[in-house]
Amino acid sequence: QVHLSRYTLANSNNPHMMLEEKRFISEAAINYIGIQADIIRKYRRPEQFITTNGLFGVLDNHKLVKEKLDFMTYDSYPNFAFAMEGSKLSPRSLRDRETSFNLAKTRSVSNRFGIMEQQSGPGGWNTRLLQPAPKPGQLRLWTFQSIAHGADFVSYFRWRTCTFGTEMYWHGLLNYDNFPNRRTEELLRVSEDIQKIQRIAGTKHTAKFAILCDYDNAWDGMEDKWHGPLNRESTDGWFKALQRAHIPFEFVNINDEGTSRPLENFTAAVYPHPTIMTPARAEILRAYTENGGTLFFGCRSGYKDIDGQCPMMPMPGLLAPLTGCTVEDFTFIGPADEKEYMTLGEKKIPAPTFNDILRPDFESCEVLATYDGNYYNGKPALTKNTVGKGTVYACGSVFAEETAAALLELLPKAELCPVTGWLELPEEIELTVRTNEKNGRSYAFLLNYTAQPQTVTVQKPTKELLTRETLDGTYTMEPYGVLVLDKPQ
User: Fold this and answer.
1) How many CB atoms lie within 10 A of CB 328?
2) Average pLDDT over residues 194-216
3) Which domains does the chain have, with CATH numbers?
4) What is the 3-state secondary structure (H, E, C) of the chain?
5) Which pLDDT belongs to residue 358?
6) Rounded average pLDDT over 308-319
7) Per-residue pLDDT at 89 exceeds 80
8) What does the pLDDT read at residue 114?
9) Interatomic CA distance for residues 393 and 80, integer angstroms
């Protein structure tokens, strides 16, 4: 009765129809899953659960879990980052932690979640995604990566490798011969480890920093090149900066009804490029900052309504009372332009891809950084506005990793990094923390993704759960090693 969106002249499309189509597809898929789930509920045993094994692109996963499933499970394949057709990795790529990003997304959808397929062997089809075998220690590392990010259930893919068919190269714990091997030996070590950390089951991943996101902007950005790629670039920049600073974070979804987690639980948050904005969401953000929260916005914020149309008002539209400024001018940084920077104090930091030239409109709005180059040299690039007890930073560019790292320095790290004064960690080590909400006990996971030993410094005597040792002073982690520390009270 209604045509699906179609490309028109110049290979373009109707962006508003494509956004509505994605909303329709999500709603239709969730309703169909509900039909299946209702049938299963009639016949399942009380201990059986209903789930699905992944996050899918044009699907409101939060609504799916809330209305149709018991909880979410995820298929974790960290070696996708090292597939043979991939490009050579730079030393600072953090590709080895892409799965940490995906697990954080899963956790945002379902605070209680599991892993339906944990990679245990080399993978790929006969046609693509060829991958190396997991190196000694990586099976254990990847298992703990899932647990460190909140999983309470881990199931390996798979026990025995299939000897025929399209997935005969998706190897499991056993090869075709069914004989024990180094992966099954490593599994025995993992099994012993798991018995030592049973107290952690049911604890929750904890963080004081949030990355805000929503389905409307994500779906609209799949087609709109004026903001979709910017959001992906900025989210990657913040992820890397937070990882290297050892600041755990949560993805928090926002819609007109509220947020997937209470914003008041977070000291600071970034909403990189919320192009689509509604009065209800602007009010949620206002309440958060007025009550003491710190909020960062990037360029391309607030210039569309819920239908993806552009109201005739100064950008950033409904967010202007929060930022205290409007956008005087804007531009992509073209291929003929020099790289753009902003000067923040004595630092010169990147202002990549797209630039909003800001204009303070409120007395409470302070210019912190100015552009350094192009025709808008010296114009405001970063502002700070006081809103009630809180603070709003408006950044006129995309967030490169170096940009996000510089902005993190504006915040009290002791409130964001849970090991300040307790542990000193090199950048190569990932940190996550899980906390027992009943007794307040916290457990820090340290994960070494490198093939080299890494040295950590323990500044307070600490019990390590896997070795049962008390650590104090320097400790050398083995390649692909794991530590689980009981945080001193």
Assistant:
1) 16
2) 97
3) 9-196 (3.20.20.80), 209-415 (3.40.50.880), 418-486 (2.60.40.1180)
4) CCCCCCCCHHHCCCHHHHHHHHHHHHHHHHHHHHHHHHHHHHHCCCCCCCCCECCCCCCCHHHHHHHHCCCEEEEECHHHHHCCCCCCCCCCCCHHHHHHHHHHHHHHHCCCEEEEEEECCCCCCCCCCCCCCCCCCHHHHHHHHHHHCCEEEEEEECCECCCCCCCCCCCCCECCCCCCCHHHHHHHHHHHHHHHCHHHCCCEECCCEEEEECHHHHHHHCCCCCCHHHHHHHHHHHHHHHHHHCCCEEEEEEECCEECCCHHHCCEEEECCCCECCHHHHHHHHHHHHCCCEEEECCCCCCECCCCCCCCCCCCHHHHHHHCEEEEEEEECCCCCCCCEEEECCEEEECCCEEEEEEECCCCEEEEEEECCCCCCCCEEEEEEEECCEEEEEECCCCCHHHHHHHHCCCCHHHHCCCCCCEECCCCEEEEEEECCCCCCEEEEEEECCCCCEEEEEEEEEEECCCCCEEEEEEEECCCCEEEEECCC
5) 98
6) 97
7) no
8) 97
9) 36
Give me the half-sphere count of Cα atoms (radius 13 Å) on the Cβ side of residue 80.
11
Q: What pLDDT score was predicted for residue 91?
A: 66
Structure tokens at 173: 């714990």
pLDDT of residue 96: 83
